[in-house]
Amino acid sequence: MLTTNPFDDDKLREECGIFGIWGAETASAVVALGLHALQHRGQEAAGITSWDGHQFHTHRAMGHVAGNFDRDDVIRSLPGKVACGHVRYSTTGETALRNVQPLFAELSSGGFSIAHNGNISNAMKLRRDLVRRGSIFQSTSDTETIIHLVATSAYRSLLDKFIDALKQVEGAYSLICMTPEGMIVCRDPLGIRPLVMGRVGDAYIFASETVALDVVGATFIRQVEPGELIIVSDKGLRSIRPFANVRPRPCVFEHVYFSRPDSIVDGSSVYSVRKAIGAQLAIESPADADLVIPVPDSGVPAAIGYAQQSGIPFELGIIRSHYVGRTFIQPGDQVRHLGVKLKHNANKALIDGRRIILIDDSIVRGTTSLKIVQMMRDAGAREVHMRIASPPTRHSCFYGVDTPERAKLLAAQMTIGQMSDYINADSLAFVSVDGMYKALGEDFRDEANPQYCDACFTGDYPTHLTDQEEVAPADQLSLLGERERASL
Ligand SMILES: O=P(O)(O)OC[C@H]1O[C@H](OP(=O)(O)OP(=O)(O)O)[C@H](O)[C@@H]1O
Ligand SMILES: NC(=O)CC[C@H](N)C(=O)O
Ligand code: SF4
Ligand SMILES: [Mg+2]
């Protein structure tokens, strides 16, 4: 997949967050709050579209929710009782305003806006066919293919057109769409990306994570089921199942890293799962040491679990700056190097002379581990044992997480022993795949019919990867915009 982030691709980037509300007086203000709670899922850009019963209004901007959607004039320009929004981390299509969601188009049925979390793994192929048939794309985002498939569908009703479009799409999609007929919300048949439903007063809310419901004072009703399509209109709420039934395979990495620990994903508390993975790691890979130290932020719950299981004291040996975001993105090697140091610093008084177990949730390129282990040694650690609360990340994600290509994944290039040497640890261990499944409440991974998507660990992708398999890189390039090609 040609990802087009113009900056470095050091890490597993976040994905996207979506939030929609039907039937509240200050709909766009509520969406702004909800997006704020989902900011960890995408920090490149944000957008809100509202529907006032006659017209759609949109504001989209590069950057964070705060600074763009905390302004009265912006919220006032988004009137109506229906609104939806998006925070973006691009997976297909460059980081530019034309790709910022919600995307909007005037169709034969009227206005149509779409907010998408996920990635369509046959978007390039669909786009090539649509362009040959005369479609004129306004963006380079995979999401826009859905709009064109709806627009060109031979079915008569908007809903039938929409279902027809989704049946041609492969990959991951949680969607919130707004039309004059109502809000249409759906999750792909495998439920790869999350989506939940809540209520506040008489209004219905849909959001990527439950934390966004909490923040706006809404009550969690249930998750949108994999393969479910919900239509909310003045007539109420209607649920249909337009796809053939398959065993769902939600993304396991939501539990490991992406979701906020205070969210409930697939019915499980993310915090509890992370703690359980840490405990499992302590059982599978013990180490003789004085302290258990988390790599903040996402390593913290697993480190608590490891410490409780092993009986080794948990301490904050690394302090993080709250003024540096989840991933500090800066072009240029020198600044990037400074970035990690800005974010984390050793609590030297604690570390000096101790044997420590460092816990992080994942190793992607190894940038963080390499620097943190060195930081611990510089602070006087006697031994540094690194433990990782996920299996080795050996494969790229094509479902909405912007992973580096395989060649840049440390675990795809080295054995665990080589990785340990590379990061200069005294020992390195990862939780097993079955251990991760145990922490999720399963007995083991069902090899014949896995309970989760875990492709970045196992390489077992739950859908075709048509663009990877059928669209040659040269053709992929020809489908991209000029600016996108220049940024590669
Ligand atoms: O091996 P690497 O390429 O360095 O990537 C892995 C690191 O990236 C993530 O942290 P990040 O700083 O993005 O976010 P966090 O603050 O949520 O832990 C993850 O938690 C690991 O620490
Ligand atoms: N990370 C995501 O979910 C991104 C959504 C969509 N594929 C985009 O690139 O805009
Ligand atoms: S490949 Fe990994 S990150 Fe992507 S959806 Fe599957 S489990 Fe999640
Ligand atoms: Mg981290």
Automatic annotation (TrEMBL):
Its signal peptide is none
Question: What's the Enzyme Commission number for this chain?
Answer: 2.4.2.14
Cofactor binding, per record: Binds 1 Mg(2+) ion per subunit.
Q: Does the keyword Ubl conjugation apply?
A: no
One GO biological process this protein is involved in is: purine nucleobase biosynthetic process
Required cofactor(s): Mg(2+); [4Fe-4S] cluster
Q: Where does [4Fe-4S] cluster bind?
A: C251, C397, C453, C456
Pfam families linked to this entry: GATase_6, Pribosyltran
Q: Which PROSITE patterns match?
A: GATASE_TYPE_2
On whether Iron is a keyword of this UniProt record, the answer is yes
Q: So where does Mg(2+) get bound?
A: S298, D360, D361
Top EC category: transferase
InterPro entries the record matches: GATase_2_dom (IPR017932), Ntn_hydrolases_N (IPR029055), PRTase-like (IPR029057), PRTase_dom (IPR000836), PurF (IPR005854), PurF_N (IPR035584)
Functional pathway: Purine metabolism; IMP biosynthesis via de novo pathway; N(1)-(5-phospho-D-ribosyl)glycinamide from 5-phospho-alpha-D-ribose 1-diphosphate: step 1/2
Q: Which residues form the Glutamine amidotransferase type-2 domain?
A: 16-235
Swiss-Prot/TrEMBL catalytic activity: 5-phospho-beta-D-ribosylamine + L-glutamate + diphosphate = 5-phospho-alpha-D-ribose 1-diphosphate + L-glutamine + H2O
Q: Which UniProt keywords apply?
A: 4Fe-4S, Glutamine amidotransferase, Glycosyltransferase, Iron, Iron-sulfur, Magnesium, Metal-binding, Purine biosynthesis, Transferase
Q: Which family does it belong to?
A: In the C-terminal section; belongs to the purine/pyrimidine phosphoribosyltransferase family.
Stated name of the protein: Amidophosphoribosyltransferase
Source organism: Sphingomonas oleivorans
Higher taxonomy = Bacteria, Pseudomonadati, Pseudomonadota, Alphaproteobacteria, Sphingomonadales
